Amino acid sequence: MRVPHPIPYQGSKRNIAKYILPFFPHEISALVEPFAGSAAISIAAACYGKASRFQLNDLNKPLMALWHEIVHNPQAIAENYARLWKEQQGNERRFYDHIRDEFNKTQRPDCLLYLLARCVKASVRYNPKGEFNQSPDNRRMGREPKKMADDIFAVSNLLRGRVKITSKDYKEVLETVAPDDLVYMDPPYQGVCGNGESRYLGGVDFDELMQALSQLNRRHTSFILSYDGRTGNKSFGKELPRELELYRIEIEAGRSTQSTLLGGDAVTYESVYVSKSLVERLEIHPRRLIDKLAAQRTVQLAFVT
What we know:
By secondary structure, the protein is of the alpha/beta class. The chain has 2 domains: 17-60 and 164-303, Vaccinia Virus protein VP39 (Rossmann fold, 3-Layer(aba) Sandwich); 69-150, Orthogonal Bundle (Adenine-specific Methyltransferase, domain 2). Helix content is 39%, strand content 16%. Strands 1, 2, 3, 4, 5, 6, 7, 8 and 9 form a 9-stranded mixed beta sheet that branches. A hairpin with a 2-residue loop joins β5 (222-231) and β6 (234-236). The longest helix has 15 residues, at 92-106. The radius of gyration is 19 Å and the shape is globular. The relative contact order is 0.14. Mean pLDDT is 87; it is low at 192-200 and 259-263.
């Protein structure tokens, strides 16, 4: 089954979603994504019937406004994207700069979708004022309108009437999670937060996140966390506290883009953590599930903790 993805986003979990979905319990009241981004996991879960209700949240308000248009006004956002895509032809670079300025003034969803489709490596960058400042990929014009429209309408059909779209602090979202919900979190990694890093409108403090996870454990909330990983022998970020009692799994995510650009062939591994409460809801222990998945896939999965 082809899973639609209208929003291109660096760091999206669309390529490893099929390895995360098997850790979903059978009965889920709602799937909650406090750091939605491209919503790759929710879209995949909707496609495969893993959940019937969803909450997409992200601190990035223009991004969530775009999600609102995709879900509730697919015809309008598809037509507006097509218009921008066609208007750029013959003057792609200057037109991109014009739309970037327009977005920073108006926060228009169609402008953001165009910028995401055209910017370098689908990688969002913001300046200290919170303005979008990523450069265009001058080798391509962005996704063709017909293909973009197909994915927009497909996602709208999957989520319309079943999704709540919000733009709040993740801690506020976690406070409202129900016992039968499942939380999937893909926060900004430690390696791309702070120190002047401009990939996100707001970073996530490590200690505050650990406290939030501890509170979820005390409430017996089921959650899956994608956080950090390694490329070759180089690991990113501090280890998570053992007292959280999380089950850590490594998923091979392919060759590192940065390594490839530098002439190397290092492989990136994503770390995925499964809460103890979630394990208790599964019919199979994560270690056995990993063995089962590894036998069916060519990708490497490793039960680490």
